[in-house]
Amino acid sequence: MDPLVWFQRLALDVRIAVELTGRPVELYVVRLELRVAGAWRTIHLFDNAHGAHDEHSFRGALKLPALEFFVGSNSEAIPRAISLLKERWPIIMEQWRTTA
Amino acid sequence: MADHHGAVEDDGMSPRNTTAAESAADHRFLEIVGGAATAYPAESELVRADLPDLSAVITENVAARRTTVVVHDDGSEVIVDPPEFGKIAAFILLVALAALGARRAQLEAAGNVVELPVGARVRLRPPSGVLAA
Fold first, then answer.
1. pLDDT surpassing 80 at residue B16
2. Using CA atoms, how far apart are residues A99 and A93, in angstroms rounded to an integer?
3. Which residues of chain B make contact with A76, given a CB cutoff of 8 A?
4. Residues B3, A55: Cα–Cα separation, whole Å
5. pTM value?
């Protein structure tokens, strides 16, 4: 089953991408994407690929180890992940730029 | 239910100020992702109406053949759909463009003018949620 993807633009070069597989959702990825040199790059993400609700930071292109950000259902975790990115994206972006 | 972000003040981050349009866009995005709002094509992009670069975002999405949902502070929306066409329609479109001298429709966004290709569609959605063609 192909995932459904939705975007919300936060700034010209910053967006959130939400990728959902299954209805009800079985797998999800919530990504913060930054456009760098014309290409969208993931700089932070939340997913449940390994069964838990995980959060991953990035150092450049390197995806850092997961940190469980939530315990609960997918339908609760997804809006939580989106809200976290909306609250924190300027800081995440700055941290990514200084460590990339 | 628990999460390690429960205490926001522990993160050393104060809440960001959000505009009414941003709040409306946030609300609508959660509805779409949650499956409560289904009137949007997959891969649509929501953008708040007061984003300074709104016209650039619409132009970019039309070029990428992605629907843009512009959300205003009262919850109303302007939905900009890219043209839908296949190979035959693309040929007809090229002929039509040549015939018309590439004359294009325009949409004003955030004080700027967005040029829309032939076949692009703009829909208005009032806060009540009734779609108008």
1. no
2. 10
3. 1
4. 11
5. 0.81
Residue A17: both structure tokens together = 């991408």
Residues B44, A71: C-beta atoms closer than 8 Å: no
Min Cα separation B122/chain A (Å) = 19
DSSP states along B24-74 = HHHHHHHHHHTTS---S-TT-EEEETT-TTHHHHHHHHHHTT--EEEE-TT
How far apart are alpha carbons B45 and A10 in whole angstroms?
10
Amino acid type, B8: V
Mutation site, A1, A4, A5, A9, interface B, largest B CB count within 10 A: A9
pLDDT in tens, B64-112: 999 999 999 999 999 999 987 655 566 665 666 566 554 556 666 666 7
